Amino acid sequence: VLQKNHIFKGSIYDNILYGDTGATREQVIEASGSAYLHEQVLELPAGYDTDAQQLSGGQQQRIAIARLFLKNPPVIFLDEPTASLDAIATEHIKMSLDAIKENRTVAIISHSLSQIVDADSIYVMKEGRMVESGSHESLYVQDGEYRKIFDASARSLNLDKMMQTLAG
Fold first, then answer.
1. Where are the strands (E) in 31-104, listed by range?
2. CATH number of the domain located at residue range(s) 1-110 in this protein
3. Measured between alpha carbons, how far is 74 from 64 in angstroms, rounded to an integer?
4. pLDDT computed for residue 124 by the predictor
5. I need a surface site. Which of 17, 96, 123, 168 has the fewest CB within 10 A?
6. Beta pairing class for 122-126 and 129-134
7. pLDDT computed for residue 63 by the predictor
8. Alpha-carbon dihedral sign for residues 144, 149, 155, 160
9. How crowded is residue 13: how many other Cβ atoms within 10 Å of its Cβ?
10. Of 34, 119, 42, which is closest to residue 78 (Cα–Cα)?
11. Cα(158)–Cα(155) distance, integer angstroms
12. Confidence (pLDDT) at 153
């Protein structure tokens, strides 16, 4: 799944079916549901017959994820899967990706820490070289590049204020 996936001119159904052209309609709908897209498709006047190119970036991203559910590959590569998406679309994509990541090998390239904090192994790159590796917890306590990135991300999101707001 890339930052910008290829969505061809045609229906949502046909774009999802591209993941496995031998899939049944039920399998396409199941994949759409697993990618958190099905309910939104049902709200469209033409449903699965809607032109997929008319969808939002987040919805198009979920078409690509639905294709993955159909294909069911043992290894998945994700390149900035939530780049340029708003917070709500990012949350939906993250839920979709969390579901597809179960029981398979997944490599994610991401500047978004929310996509990688639960990874088994994280590799930190700086100037084209790997400078650290480990789990979120081990990298955070190392107080190196990952910690700097994580802390800067938390500050940029104003997490202290968000936590105060959520605490009520």
1. 75-79
2. 3.40.50.300
3. 16
4. 96
5. 168
6. antiparallel
7. 93
8. negative
9. 19
10. 119
11. 5
12. 87
Assess contact for 70 and 17: CB atoms under 8 A.
yes
Q: Which two tokens stand for residue 116?
A: 């990688």
The per-residue pLDDT string of the chain (168 residues; one tens digit each, 9 = 90 and over) reads 545 678 999 999 999 999 999 999 999 999 999 888 999 999 999 999 999 999 988 889 889 989 999 999 999 998 888 776 778 878 887 887 888 888 889 999 988 888 889 899 999 999 999 999 999 999 999 999 999 999 998 888 887 888 888 888
Q: Which sequence spans correspond to the domains of the chain?
A: 1-110, 117-168
Q: Which amino acid is at 102?
A: E
Q: Which residues share a beta bridge with 123? A: 133
| Number of residues in the chain | 168
| Cα–Cα nearest to 61, from 116, 15, 11, 103 | 15
Contact 89, 57 (CB under 8 A): yes
Long-range contacts of 112-117 (CB under 8 A, 24+ apart): 112/80, 112/82, 112/83, 113/149, 113/150, 113/153, 114/82, 114/90, 115/78, 115/81, 115/82
